[in-house]
Amino acid sequence: MVKSMELGVDVKESDKVYLEHLKKVMGEFTKTNYGVELDIPVMWSKRLTRKWGYFAYKKNGYTGKVEKGSLKIVLSYKLYKTENKDIVESIAKHEALHFALFRLGEPHSDGHPHFEGELKRHGLVRTGVTSKMVGIGGKYWVWTCGDCDKVVIKGGKTRKNYGVGYLSRCCGARLKEQGWQYLGAGQDYL
Known about the structure:
Blueprint: H1 11-34, E1 42-45, E2 53-56, E3 72-76, H2 78-81, H3 85-104, H4 113-122, H5 131-134, E4 138-145, E5 151-155, E6 175-183
Parallel strand pairs: 1-3
Antiparallel strand pairs: 2-3, 4-5, 4-6
Helix pairs in contact: 1-3
């Protein structure tokens, strides 16, 4: 195991410690504001790449009732790696709010006016938080300026050939396809 310089503990242990901290923050939030005990599992997922987290439960297909033990909150492991701990706590509370409203039998879906009103009332982040807001980068298909190597286009792989007929705004040069690249939050150059 690799030792963390900040905490002096194994990295695996420190991510568990941070998850317990987030669970405590979420529990205090639900208990104080809604009188609901956070008694469900909260876990990291390294497979979550498009969302920062979610609240989930399963319903029985025959009875329509929620299956016992199926409730959980899952947070993206990318949140563990960010420096912006305030937004991480806001995202965690957002997911805890889904749970609290679910327990109270109130509308708990993203986009529902009641849920959105509760987010606003508590000053929590809404759905659609970007990687830049969180302060972490990602893997992108990159096109750069042919002269200065500034990143001009980044995103999922596109079928469009930006190398023919497209010029960069910075230097007026043709674009170069760089392929998949790992970019940090706000990174402008390769």
